[in-house]
Amino acid sequence: xxxxxxxxxxxxxxxxxxxxxxxxxxxxxxxxxxxxxxxxxxxxxxxxxxxxxxxxxxxxxxxxxxxxxxxxxxxxxxxxxxxxxxxxxxxxxxxxxxxxxxxxxxxxxxxxxxxxxxxxxxxxxxxxxxxxxxxxxxxxxxxxxxxxxxxxxxxxxxxxxxxxxxxxxxxxxxxxxxxxxxxxxxx
Length: 187
Hints:
By secondary structure, the chain is an all-beta fold. 2% of the residues lie in helices and 55% in strands. It has one helix at 96-99, and strands spanning 2-4, 13-16, 19-29, 37-44, 50-56, 60-63, 66-77, 80-85, 91-95, 111-117, 120-125, 129-137, 150-155, 160-164, 172-176, 181-185.
C-alpha cells in the first residue's frame, strides 16, 4: 500500500530501493515559500545502517509490512543458527550474515525478537542485558577493587569482554549486548 509523507510516523516501515527501512525520526517542515517536505532518518532493517532522506509533498512510498516474532535460540551448526518460533513451534535456520555480532552472545534457550518481511528474516534483536558465566580469565587478587582497571574474560558463549579485576572464573555477570560491555556482577 502506497502512502504519502503526511502519514510518516516513527516506527513505520517502508520499502525503498528494494530495501526495508524503519522511520526513526521525522520532521514535518512547512516553509513560508514552496511546498511542505519531511526530513526523515531511516534505519535499514537488514544492515542496521542509518540514512537521512528528505521527501517532498508529491512523493509516495510503499509500506513494508514487517512482522515481529518471538524466537528461542536452540543450537548452532556451522554458519547456521537454529531458532524455534514461539507461536507455531517451527524451526528456522538463520545465517551468520543476518545475525552478525549478535551471535557471540547467543546461549541455549535465549529468547530474541525476529523481524520478518515476506517470511524472510531481516534482523534479530537481542535482549538488552543477559547474564553470562565467566569461563576463562586471570584470577583476581585480593585487594582488587571495582575502580582498579579491566582485564579480558571469556564468557560461556565464547565472547571475550573486558571485566573488572575482581571478577573470577565461575562468576555470573550482566552484559549489555548492544555495547558488549560489562554491567555488574550478578552473584
